[in-house]
TrEMBL record:
Protein name: Uncharacterized protein
Localization (cell): Membrane
Family, similarity comment: Belongs to the acetate uptake transporter (AceTr) (TC 2.A.96) family.
GO cellular component assignments: plasma membrane
Record membrane topology: Multi-pass membrane protein
GO molecular function: acetate transmembrane transporter activity
Organism: Jaapia argillacea MUCL 33604
Amino acid sequence: MSDIEKANGRVEHLSHLHNSAVDPVAQPSFGLRGVPMRKFGNPGALGLMSFATTTLVLSLINASARSVTTPNVVVGLAVFVGGLAQLLAGMWEFAVGNTFGATAFSSYGGFWMSYATILIPGSGILTGYTSAQELHNALGLYLTAWTIVTFVFLIACARKNGIFVFLFSSLVVTFACLAAAQFTGNAHVLKAGGVIGVIVALIAYYAALATMLTDDDWFTLPLFEFPKRDE
């Protein structure tokens, strides 16, 4: 065997060892050669915490907690926490190969940014309608669209785990109540949507904590995973 063949054999052997040690999901290469692989953390916890915190504050306002009914205080949260932080979590979910997490976090990040834009006076959205009823109907249509989006996510997560099913089921009801409240002007329906929204936020906090806890911690929380089809 020539020296060239021996050298090629050593290169192939080292390449095989390198490739076998790399997890393509946890350490994506993005198709770039010569770029060192690094293990990614789970961005799901960031996405869930961002979603939960913004949802909690708005839901408490919708439920008239402490007699607060004006949602303007949520604008900052909606832009930077529920919006930007959750959108970033969605982008990182794409990087680790989680299509569901990427789509869900990015979508709700967009939702919070769009909701904040509606509340910002400079956008002119709230003052662009000729009557209060037209504005409420428009907001009802907006929330109806997000009810449908959330129902799609509910279908997609039906085989994942019990916590996610509970989360998205409750979120569907929340959006439906908020949409109905805009169409009808019923304050009780709005308050019901706020109460259910608080439950959604608490479920999301639970899921975030369960995601962050590992076997090295004092305890772990179950997500009630469903068995796979081949199990």
